[in-house]
Design brief:
The protein has 169 residues and is α/β, with parallel strands linked by helices. It is built from seven helices and six strands, in the order αβββαααβββααα. It has two domains: 58 residues, no CATH class; 101 residues, Metalloproteases ("zincins"), catalytic domain (Zincin-like, 2-Layer Sandwich), CATH 3.30.2010.10. It has a six-stranded mixed β-sheet with strand order 1-3-2-4-6-5. The chain is globular, with a radius of gyration of 17 Å. Bound molecules: zinc ion (ZN). The site of zinc ion (ZN) has 5 residues, from loops.
Length: 169
């Protein structure tokens, strides 16, 4: 695939990141963070996969851009949280870890795995609501569940993700 060669990749080997490889798009460069000890061959394979995902993403960019994600978050914030939540950033990431979303309450940033772009919108909405709820409750307590369950399709969405062996964070 010719497109594969056109993607610039920057690999950052990190002592700190021990378990997983993750990547994000910085301008036009795919920045890949990898454990120091990961064999080059294995990393090459992973980078290749990320590049393919990136190409797929570009093909559907008009539907699945970070901008579209941000406006969806806005809408869900209004609908389920009275628009009270402050989100500093929401973006797609390419990562190898199993979880579909993650939230850092401290920086109020939300990251959604690129794989979400392949899920139906009602499931993506659930994932976004889950991450939004973490801005209020960092854990999966009863209070957290109550927040998420305001979304009528929450239970079905959990089942859907489970069936695909996709983990919530
Ligand atoms: Zn969670």
């Amino acid at each position: 695939m010719e497109e594969l060669k056109q993607i610039d990749v920057r690999v950052i080997r990190s002592r700190k990141r021990v378990k997983s490889v993750a990547a994000c798009l910085n301008g036009n460069v795919l920045e890949v963070r990898a454990p120091l000890a990961l064999p080059q061959e294995e990393l090459d394979g992973i980078v290749e996969k990320f590049k393919r995902r990136l190409i797929r993403r570009r093909r559907t960019e008009h539907l699945n851009s970070d901008g579209a994600l941000a406006s969806r978050i806005d809408e869900l914030n209004k609908r389920y949280f009275d628009g009270k939540l402050q989100v500093s950033s929401v973006k797609y990431v390419f990562n190898q870890v199993k979880s579909i979303g993650s939230c850092t309450p401290k920086t109020r940033s939300i990251r959604i795995s690129q794989r979400a772009a392949e899920l139906p919108q009602w499931v993506v909405d659930y994932v976004l609501i889950h991450e939004l709820a973490h801005l209020i409750e960092a854990n999966h307590s009863k209070r957290f569940r109550a927040l998420v369950n305001k979304y009528p399709l929450a239970e079905r969405a959990r089942g859907y993700l489970m069936a695909l062996e996709i983990e919530e964070d």
